[in-house]
Design goal:
The complex is a heterodimer of chains A (118) and B (109). With 118 residues, chain A is mainly β. Chain A is built from no helices and 11 strands. Helices cover 0% and strands 48% of the residues of chain A. In chain B, the strands form 2 sheets. In chain B, strands 2, 4, 5, 9, 10 and 11 form a 6-stranded mixed β-sheet that branches. Chain B has a 5-stranded antiparallel β-sheet with strand order 1-3-8-7-6, with no helix packed on it. The A-B interface holds A 4, 6, 33, 35, 41-43, 45, 48, 56, 91, 93, 99-100, 103-112, 114 and B 31-32, 34, 36, 41-46, 49, 51, 87, 89, 91, 94-102.
């Protein structure tokens, strides 16, 4: 079946503009995660959704970052008033159940959105 | 202190030269350890999940093993197409998995 998809694949914006990044998870996956990966750095956790709710927003770096998920499926990560330090690859992953009971849950990643803030 | 540490940071091998990548962790209640492969410009690709000490999994030239403190990703007779960054992630209890910084592997023909 189809994997996780993200759009756009590349986004170049000017400092101060708002951007929206989209993630389509694997069908039937209830958990969705956003990560940020800067050049040469590890994956930085941003936010986790279980269904439409976000029990863990602890990784969002500032109030300029927000995310929502509708219909238990598509998620949008919004960055307002972008700054140059926001330049990175934004990765989305989904998993079947998330962190509730049972066995650990394997995350499947999308190809990422490369954001460049000029 | 990092919960997940990968070593070495970078590894260069000749084609056919077997080696191992290490992922050490300090979490107490391990629920799962994950290995991913990431090619430049792409998202991480899932390789293995290990759940308990003593468990082993294999896929082509890759074999992952797990102890109570660390995991190894053994690469047997690597080929240039095995060149990638290999990421390890650890899930403790009900928490979000924590990723290591990865090992960048280059296999020369």
């Amino acid at each position: 079946g189809a994997g996780v998809s993200q759009s756009p694949s590349n986004k170049v914006t000017e400092k101060g503009k708002d951007v929206e990044l989209r993630c389509d998870p694997i069908s039937g996956h209830t958990a969705l995660y956003w990560y940020r990966q800067s050049l040469g750095q590890g994956l930085e956790f941003l936010i986790y959704f279980q269904g439409n709710s976000a029990p863990d927003k602890s990784g969002l770096p500032s109030d300029r970052f927000s995310a929502e998920r509708t219909g238990g499926s598509v998620s949008t990560l919004t960055i307002q008033r972008t700054q140059q330090e926001d330049s990175a690859v934004y990765l989305c992953a989904s998993s079947r159940r998330g962190n509730y009971g049972g066995a650990s849950d394997t995350q499947y990643f999308g190809p990422g959105t490369r954001l460049t803030v000029l | 202190e990092d919960q997940v540490t990968q070593s070495p940071e970078a590894l260069r091998l000749q084609e056919g030269e077997s080696s191992s990548l290490n992922c050490s962790y300090t979490v107490s209640g391990l629920r799962g350890l994950f290995w991913y492969r990431q090619d430049p410009g792409k998202g991480p690709e899932f390789l293995f999940t290990l759940y308990s000490a003593g468990e082993e999994k294999e896929k082509e030239r890759l074999k992952a093993t797990l102890t109570k403190k660390e995991s190894f990703l053994h690469i047997t007779a690597p080929k240039p197409e095995d060149s990638a960054t290999y990421l390890c992630a650890v899930q403790e209890g009900s928490y979000i998995p924590t990723f290591g910084r990865g090992t960048s592997l280059i296999v020369h023909p």
